[in-house]
Amino acid sequence: MKLSNLIDCTQGNMSEVVVGEHPQYGRVVLKRITNRLAGLERFAQRWDQEVSICKLLSFKTQVPKVYESGDLPKKWALYEYVGSRTLQDWIDAHSYPLKREQIKEACSIIRKVLDIIVISFKNGIVHRDITPSNVVLNDEGQPFLIDWGLAAFVNSKSNLHIPDIESSLVRFPLKNVRLTEVYRRHGRPGYAAPEQAEAFYDTPGLKNDMYSLSVLAIHLISGRWPFGELTDSSSILINRQRNVKNQKSIDSWIIDLFSNRIVDFLLADAKRRSIDTNKFVEMLEDINL
Q1: pLDDT at 85
Q2: Which of 59, 80, 101 is the last residue of a domain?
Q3: Residues 259, 265: contact at Cβ < 8 Å?
Q4: In terms of domains, do 152 and 182 share one?
Q5: For the chain, what is the domain count?
Q6: What local confidence, expressed as pLDDT, does residue 178 receive?
Q7: What is the pLDDT of residues 99-154, one digit of tens each?
């Protein structure tokens, strides 16, 4: 596929990404599976399922649309361009501590990402890789959640009917389907919930994304990171996450800013961890400005 006015070319772990102009759709994002993964069946399946998820969720919430997709000469997908500024760029562009209005803006962004998470969960999907780099802001400052390659289904008893942009419906059975392998580490250590980062199989659920969103909220609003430094080794980060068992396990500056309610969303024990979205919103509203 030929695009004009190429403005960006990057390569991630799974895909090559090009931004350019399409004669029909305008500015678009073209993603192609990397050459080293192109011949591996399990990555081909993950690719197809990510495209299917985006086709579904883009009709329901802030997820970029998929205009077209194909298999030749290797798997590719043409996505809606929503912007290039990520939440990591937002963090890097601000001086901390934030001013009152900036904190309100940060809280508003987090609440909108929460809306995306909740809508996705109601459609049987959890993202499992929520980081500042995977939230893109459009020109109006509205967040979009991108990169659904590590997503997992939470509803194995029904089928999703995914609107296909080119034709009618694609029947996508969820039973016995996982987007990623079991017993493998998934997600960025320090952001991913401990049960993901430790590489132990765990039933995916809202608890995964609520955990990552809580870490993101701390980082976005304070400019600091709750588990030390992101440059620390994965094993150090995971160990610190595993040690969060109660309020005493959290640095006092986090409690001062968010109140002790933040602890409930960061507990290492997934069975005890809160998924109360109303409580999360109330916590944001009560942040000590």
Answers
A1: 95
A2: 80
A3: no
A4: yes
A5: 2
A6: 45
A7: 999 999 999 999 999 999 999 999 999 999 999 999 999 999 999 999 999 898 88
Looking up residue 18, the CATH number of its domain turns out to be 3.30.200.20
Nearest to 1 by CA among 63, 76, 102: 76
C-alpha to C-alpha distance for 215 and 234, rounded to whole angstroms: 16
Domain range for 53 is 4-80
Alpha helices in the chain (DSSP H): 41-57, 87-93, 100-122, 194-197, 206-222, 234-242, 252-258, 263-266, 277-285
How high is the pLDDT of residue 198?
A: 58
DSSP letter assigned to residue 258: H
Could you give the 3-state DSSP secondary structure of residue 82?
coil
Q: Looking at beta carbons, which pairs linking 274-280 to residues 24 or more positions away fall under 8 Å?
A: 274/210, 275/205, 275/206, 275/207, 275/210, 277/114, 277/118, 277/210, 280/114, 280/210, 280/213, 280/214
Residues near 198 by Cβ (< 8 Å), separated by ≥ 6? 185, 238, 242
State the 10-residue block means of pLDDT for the chain, 289 residues long: 78 87 95 91 90 96 97 94 96 96 97 98 94 96 95 59 34 42 60 76 84 97 87 84 91 93 95 96 87
Residues 146, 271, single domain; the answer is yes
Phi first, then psi: what are they for 206, rounded to 5°?
-60, -25
Of 54, 80, 106, the residue that ends a domain is: 80
Asked if 92 and 69 sit in the same domain, the reply is no
Enter the pTM of the model.
Answer: 0.87
CB 165 within 8 A of CB 202: no
The first and second tokens of residue 259, run together, are 């109140």
